[in-house]
Design brief:
The chain has 154 residues and is α+β, with helices and mostly antiparallel strands. It is built from 4 helices and 7 strands.
Length: 154
């Protein structure tokens, strides 16, 4: 496992009134927008393009920066206790084709379903959902709950 570069990128993709979410197969468990480390992708924008294609098979045709900030969020890599994030909104082309190695599922979620996942995350953060239950059936990954609230998506 490589050492963490502490730089992450996330991509919000909308389709009508829905947002594309993946359920992560690997730690950190949860539903999230496609995302990943910048690593050797070059720029944050290049990482956004690569991660979206790798995780869900979509091609970015337009990219808009929504926010950038440091978050205390843990990944599975050594030194990965925090990340400097850039979150984009993307216009895409292509057909949704999830990565079977990185995702349990990928689909379009309406605001009602996103709110239900957020409620589960809030319960988890308050200790009302056991870790094994979370790992089996998670809500929104906590860092993405923060982004959704900050960006007034929920």
């Amino acid at each position: 496992m490589p050492e963490c570069d502490n730089k992450s990128v996330g991509v919000i993709v909308r389709k009508e009134d829905k947002i594309l979410l993946i359920e992560r197969k690997k730690f950190p468990h949860g539903f999230a927008c496609p995302a990943g480390h910048v690593d050797d992708h070059g720029s944050f924008e290049d990482a956004a393009r690569d991660e979206l294609r790798e995780e869900v098979g979509l091609t970015i045709v337009g990219l808009k920066l929504l926010t950038e900030t440091r978050k205390e969020n843990k990944c599975r890599r050594e030194g990965g206790d925090w990340h400097y994030w850039k979150v984009y909104e993307a216009q895409t082309s292509g057909d949704l084709e999830r990565s079977e190695s990185e995702t349990k599922q990928a689909d379009w979620f309406d605001m009602n379903n996103i709110r239900k996942l957020a409620e589960k995350t809030n319960a988890y953060l308050k200790g009302k959902v056991a870790q094994e239950d979370w790992d089996r059936s998670p809500g929104i990954e906590p860092v993405w709950l923060d982004f959704f609230e900050e960006l007034k998506i929920i």
